[in-house]
What does this fold into?
Amino acid sequence: MAVTDEVQLQVKNIYMAFGGVQALMDISLEVKKGEIFSIIGPNGAGKTVLLNCINGLYHPQRGQIYFEGKEISNVNPHKRAEMGISRTFQKIELFKGTSVLDNIRLGRHIHLKSGLLSGSIYLGKTAREEIELRDFIEKEIIDLLEIEHIRDKVVGMLPYGLQKRVELARALALNPRIILLDEPLAGLNLEEVEDMARFILD
It folds into this structure.
């Protein structure tokens, strides 16, 4: 996607402290639509806290956050996900006892009108939704991230680098308008770093 002049995400003077320890102090930034924007800083600088504020896990004590022109400072994480804000985490957050495909499907459940439970037992119109979901995942995500060979594997049995790829796949399953990647290259070897960088650029 080409970068445009349209500001998609705006953070204005947000402040966050924990027990008197300042994690964020008057942080402001703008991300344009189609832009790859990096937040760089040492451990403990507040990068993850900032992402937590953007996706709604934390609510900043001061300042505002706008997404596509709408203030979302006090909107809950579920609603922000519905708006198209997706997220990966510094510590991989996957269901280790289930398959790669099932983990990816969970990233899409917000868009299933019939609900996740009925989707798991294929009732009525859910069968059609499930077919459409699998088609989307296979054509748009599994092929992109080159994980066809592990789609039925149990996530907990995969090496760390592939688990990072599955987490990205789950974030993409939301069909997001913006993705927040927390330390996407941490713990990867050189080849995995090159692959992940290529996936992000694609």
Residues 126-145 form the longest helix (20 residues). The chain has two domains: 7-83, 100-176.
